[in-house]
Amino acid sequence: MKCCTFFGHHDCPDSIKGELQDAIKRKIEEGVNLFYIGNHGRFDAMALSCLRELIKEYPEISYAVVLAYLPTERNGYTDRETVFPEGIESIPRRFAIDYRNRWMIDRADVVIAHVTHAWGGAAKYVRYAERKVKRIVYLKEKIVNSQRTITTE
C-alpha cells in the first residue's frame, strides 16, 4: 500500500485546485491508494474536496482526515473519514499538530506540497519530509529557501 500526504499554506489560492487534482490522479495511477490529510486551512480543505471527488472515479483509493485533537463537533467529517494518530492523546495540546504532521509524513511515501515561501508550518514540514527522503511533488510556484531553489514536478 502506497501512501500520500499533503502540506500547503493555509491561505493557498483556489486557482491551484485543478493542478492539485491532476497531481493526485498521477499518484493514483502510479499506485498510491491511501491519502492522509490534515484539517487546518484552505489547502487541506481543497485536498479533501479533490479526494471526495476522485474516490468516485477511483473506488480503490481511501483517505483519512488525520486529527490533531479530539473533535468537539463534527466539522463536516464522517466517522469513517477521520483518524486519530496513536499516541497523540499523551502529547500536550500545543504540540499536537506537530505530532500529527510528523506522523503523516513518517507513514507517507510521497508528499504533495504547495509552498510559496520558506517560513510557516507548510514549509517546515516539507523540509522535514526532505530530511526523511520522501518523494515530494511541488505544485506550481517555486520557492527559495536558505539552501536552494525548489522546483515543481
Structural write-up:
- The protein is an alpha/beta fold and 153 residues long.
- The chain has one domain (2-150): Rossmann fold (3-Layer(aba) Sandwich).
- The protein is built from 4 helices and 8 strands, in the order E-H-E-H-E-E-H-E-H-E-E-E.
- It has helices at residues 17-29, 42-57, 96-107, 121-131; strands at 2-8, 32-37, 62-66, 82-83, 110-114, 135-138, 143-144, 149-150.
- The strands form 2 sheets. Strands 4-3-2-1-5-6 form a 6-stranded parallel β-sheet, with helices on both faces. The protein has a two-stranded antiparallel sheet with strand order 7-8.
- Helix 1 (17-29) links the parallel strand 1 and strand 2.
- It starts with a strand and ends with a strand.
- Mean pLDDT is 89; it is low at 142-153.
Strand numbers in spatial order across the main sheet: 4-3-2-1-5-6
Count of individual helical segments: 4
Q: Determine the structural class based on helices, strands and strand pairing.
A: alpha/beta
Distance between the termini: 23 Å
Q: Briefly note the CATH topology name.
A: Rossmann fold
Gyration radius, rounded: 15 Å
The overall pLDDT average reads 89
Helix content: 25-40%
Level-1 CATH class name: Alpha Beta
The coarse silhouette is globular
Integer tally of domains:
1
> What is the oligomeric state here?
single chain
CATH architecture heading? 3-Layer(aba) Sandwich
Order of helices and strands: EHEHEEHEHEEE
Please give the number of β-strands: 8
Runs in which pLDDT lies below 50 for 5 or more consecutive residues are 142-153
Tell me about the largest β-sheet: 6 strands, parallel
Content of β-strand? 15-25%
